[in-house]
Amino acid sequence: MQPLDLYNHQRALWDGLIRQEPAAWCQERSQYIRLLRMGLIEDFVSLSSESLPIFFSLFDAQDGFLVPAGDLNIPHTAMRDLCAFLPSLEVYSPILFQLWKRGTFDRMVFQVHSTSVDLKDTEKSSLVSSSLRQISLPPSTFSMGALPHDTQVEIKETPRHTVTLTRGVNVCAYACTQVLFEYVMGYNPSCFLGASRPVEQVSWCDAILFCNRLSLLQGKSAVYVVPEGLSDTCRNQRNVFSDAVDNLARQIRWNQDADGYRLPTEAEWEYAARGNSETIYAGSNDIQEVAWFQGNSSTTSAPVAAKRPNHHGLFDMCGNVWEWVWDTWLSNAYTRGTCVDPVIEAPSPARIVRGGGWSSRSMLTRATFRRGDYASSKDPGRGFRFVSMPSTKNV
Length: 395
Prior knowledge:
This protein is 34% helix and 14% strand. With 395 residues, it is an alpha+beta fold. A four-stranded mixed beta sheet has the order 12-11-9-13, with helices on one face.
């Protein structure tokens, strides 16, 4: 049963119970809320496993997630304890544990930790697990580039052309979070601190190094062959740009036989953002529904997954932070016409960012807009999202 089907079924049961004996069941529900407010999370979860209808009455469905109902008024410390306890649900309720594994509580976890910096080990574990969640996209053919009804098109987005991606790809549901970046790399370069906010002020080379290190931590092979000294040179970079980093970036190579994590190609990114839909932004023609940008961000980044997802179930593909992709920047790349698995690789430090960020005008936040920048460039509005190839092992 799908998570929201389970939720709707249990809420229907709750509605039936509350119609039959409203006073008794409201009193029972109040007991659950009292345990939550007191921070007695283990008692709350143990009791919840015995009466799922009451548990689900405490949550509202929102964009595929379950978030606390508006009448709970749970203290922030208790919510942090609840979120940290989620990986332990398996002991008490396999059903609720499967909901956590499938990401049903991710928005709640991310919202609770939007400004968190110091984390307990249990909190870090829960956030890292959520941050690693990926969506599998199958091979596809789609039209890449300017939409015919888009009135803000720039020449570098044209001509619209057919692209075939012959391989499926697993795309991270969220931009790389600060908690995940720090877990992998040992430091957090971000300007707007918050465990569940996207990491920013990372260069293209920083993202490459992250992907390699995450691959090794997860028992996969590193995708990128990098020159000696790249890591130290990136860590020692003090300015927005670095000639030393850009010179080393020219030497980075992609081993396409490796099974680890990597940046998406530009074509993979646009397919993940838009696919065969005709929406201006990733998931909607209304930017307010899906993106944090200049018009609503209050000049700061936001926790991931706070806006609606696109039709693939991916969040913040437009807005919040710009996202690095693998390809070398070429302003007239689309003039090549119909392509199969396109990728532009050249010994150049100029790379591509997509999607716009929290400080971007709406025009720059469109799903087809593309821009180049130096591989060493760091900016508080720039992050990344990683992908991996589907496993080819027989199950």
